[in-house]
Structures are given as C-alpha cells and as structure tokens.
Design goal:
Blueprint (H helix, E strand, L loop, with lengths): L1 H35 L2 H11 L8 H5 L6 E5 L5 H10 L4 E4 L7 H15 L4 E5 L7 H13 L3 E9 L20 H10 L4 E6 L3 H13 L5 E3 L8 H10 L3 E6 H6 L11 H6 L4 E4 L8 H14 L2 H17 L5 H9 L15 H20 L1
Parallel strand pairs: 1-2, 2-3, 3-4, 4-5, 5-6, 6-7, 7-8
Bound molecules: zinc ion (ZN).
C-alpha cells in the first residue's frame, strides 16, 4: 500500500513538474510575443490582414452549430489554459495528447486521460507514449486501447525536417519500421485510428506509407497535417488509391504560415471530391497562435459547399468514434462497478466513448459512497 502511495506520489510530482514547465514555456512565449511588436503596429497589421472581419470569432459564431472537432492537439499539459480559447471559438471537441514518440509522452498521455475524465464531452484522448521497437511497447498499445483510449498518435512514422522531433527516441524511420506494422494490426482490431506524422511527405516516405496502407486495409490511417508541404494533387493520388486513408488538414499552416508553398484555397476542390475523408486540426497552433489556427479552420469551412461543411468540421471524425465498441476491460470494469442493463445502460448499444463516460460516472459514484 505505501509502495503504491510512493509511486503515486512520484507520478504526481512528475505531473506537477511537467505542468510547471509548461506554464513557464507558455509564459515565456507570451512575453516574447508581446515584446516584439508595438501594440499600435500590431493593430495596423491586424487591420490590414482582415479588412472585412470585425472580430476573429465572427465566423466561429456563424458555424457554432457544426460542433467543430480539432483532430490533432498537443495541449495535454496545459489544456486548462486552452479551454477559454476553445470555448471562445466554439471548438466542440479536441483530440488530445501531448508529447509524442518519446518516454515523456507516457506522462502527457496520462494527462490527456485525466482531461477526458474531467471533460468527457469535450475531449477525445489519443496516446503516443510507446516504444515501437520493443515487445513491451506493443503491450502498452494494447493496454491503452483496452483502457478505452480512442486512437493512437500522434505517432512519428518518419521525421527528417521537424526541429521538435529531431531527438525523440521512439520515432520510426519510415511507416513500416520497427513494430509499427503490429501496431497497425492492433489498431484494426480495436477500430482505433492512428495519426501518423510523416516528413518529408514525399519520395521513399510516401512509398512506405503506401506499403502500410496496402498491407493493412482494415486500419484507419490519418495522415497528420497532410497539407504541410504537400500539394493537393499528391494527396489526391493517395486518397484515390487507398480508401483506408484520412486527411488531417492543418488549415492554419496553408492559410497563415508564410513558409507554406501552397494556399488553403488550392485544396478546396479536392476536399469536395472526397468530402468524407477530411478532418480539420490546429496541431496545437504549432508555430502560430490559436487566433490564426482556429479561424483558419472556419475560413476553410466557409469555402466548402454547405453539405460538406458539417462532414469536414465534425461528422467524418465522429463517425469513426461512434463505430468503436466497448473493450473487454471496459466491460469488466462496468460489471465491477455494479453497472447493469437494469440501470438503463446496455453495453451492447454503447460506443466505447459512451462506455467511458458511463464508467467515469460509476467510478465517481462508487468513490463518493466509500467516502460516506
Ligand atoms: Zn502534431
């Protein structure tokens, strides 16, 4: 028992450390940003960039009913700080994880699960902390999926250019490296999508991704921020060949990052051609602010046909979540916590996500009754 407490104490200390570090970095970034530009200059730039929009939130207000899902977000270590922004922009749900493909991701995965427990109507947790080169890592993947995590990722299947991924020790060298193929099998077994980071999105790396798509037709692959340095034609060829491929579209990059060689407008015809295969994301506002990354999502929605908007904003991703059934571990816990069909919950009709919500409630109720 005391050993257990020690272990919990250590994890808690680690979590506090991670949050403190996150707050510090966040604070420094804020300070940095405000130092650089005179407010008057910032104002002029903002007005020039957006001559017509009165407030950045106006499009978000217009499309509030779409229940926008951000399918790629790294804020597990600071999600409480991000919530006001997500609320202001009517971001309905957030696919949440933190660090990726390195041991520290195991801590941020736990934070994502904690966020899910607290806000199950807003968070869809994914996980990324597993060693894809060891048998043990495969067991971690199975355990996390059994526990009720809704997807895997962001997983680094290849990265040569990203400075933040230069030193992560569990990254693959291509989409078929290490135990990734076995991870894909597990994903298929659990109907869990895998969000893959692949850079550069060209040459051998795309050939290896195609090998994975071909060999694992029952696995749902999501190409993370596929529009980053990849043109619409290249994405189109992949979509045409592989029906198990979905696209995470990081609109902020092609709309607001001056480094992007392509513009968001150049992908609109492709999205209309495959309206069931696209999702939207902020990538946690990577290399920009949420005030760019989120409006960019709504500006993309505005360019779509009315019948495509809901699909891309939330429907396509929600369909995948709704298709997941409860796991054996969930069902066991359901029984252990005294859940039964008699209480009005039939596991046979619940999705994995709905079962998680129910388990959180039953667990809280059982803790309350122990306290009394
Ligand atoms: Zn990312």
């Amino acid at each position: 028992m005391s050993e257990h407490m020690n272990w919990r104490g250590k994890v808690l200390a680690l979590v506090i450390l991670v949050i403190a570090a996150g707050l510090l970095v966040f604070g420094i970034r804020l300070y940095d940003r405000e130092e650089k530009l005179d407010p008057a200059v910032t104002q002029v730039i903002a007005e020039n960039e957006r001559p017509t929009a009165s407030r950045p939130e106006s499009l978000a207000d217009k499309y509030a009913d779409l229940g926008l899902i951000d399918v790629h977000n790294h804020d597990a270590y600071k999600y409480l700080l991000s919530f006001p922004t997500w609320n202001r922009y009517h971001v309905g749900k957030i696919v949440l994880f933190g660090n990726i493909s390195e041991p520290s991701a195991m801590i941020t995965d736990a934070l994502a699960w904690g966020a899910y427990n607290q806000y199950p109507d807003r968070i869809y947790p994914f996980f990324s902390g597993f060693n894809m080169f060891e048998e043990e890592g495969l067991q971690t993947v199975r355990n996390q999926l059994e526990k009720g995590f809704l997807g895997v990722g962001e997983t680094v299947a290849a990265s040569s250019n990203s400075p933040v991924l230069a030193n992560v020790i569990w990254k693959a060298s291509d989409s078929m490296d290490g135990n990734l193929p076995k991870v894909y099998e597990l994903c298929a077994e659990y109907d869990a999508p895998i969000l893959l980071h692949i850079d550069p999105p060209s040459g051998m790396q795309i050939e290896k991704l195609e090998e994975a798509l071909k060999q694992y037709p029952d696995t749902l692959f999501i190409f993370a921020h596929a529009n980053v340095y990849q043109d619409a034609d290249s994405i189109g060829k992949l979509l045409e060949s592989y029906s198990n491929l979905y696209i995470d579209f990081f609109a902020g990059f092609t709309s607001y990052n001056p480094a992007s060689p392509y513009k968001t407008e150049s992908y609109i015809d492709l999205i209309e051609q495959y309206p069931d295969r696209f999702f939207l994301s902020t990538d946690g506002a990577y290399d920009m602010t949420y005030d760019e990354a989120i409006p960019a999502m709504y500006e993309t929605i505005e360019l779509l046909k009315p019948e495509t908007r809901k699909k891309v904003a939330s429907g396509n991703f929600q369909r995948i979540i709704d298709a997941q059934r409860p796991t054996k571990t969930q069902l066991k816990l359901f029984e252990k916590l005294g859940g039964s069909v008699g209480t009005g919950a039939d596991p046979a009709t619940l999705s994995r996500h709905e079962m998680n919500k129910l388990l959180f409630k039953l667990d809280a109720a059982s803790k309350n009754s122990v306290d009394k």
